[in-house]
Predict the structure.
Amino acid sequence: MPTIDAHIILVTFILGTALVLLISEKVAVDKTAIGIMVVLALTNILTPTETVAGFANPAVVTVAAMFLLSRGLIRTEPSTL
């Protein structure tokens, strides 16, 4: 039977906390996502290169653009025209 080390327990705790924060939206989703990356980097679970590697993916850029578009639509309220 495999042993459970501290990293597994820590990652499980981080994922559980992230899940609760994402579902409850007590903290904004984007801040939660950045917080997860920061915590994983500070605990040395991810290297700095691994932490920012996802930003090179085009899907991340697309999602970020969608956040910007949705914020713009919310602020301008085009449905009231």
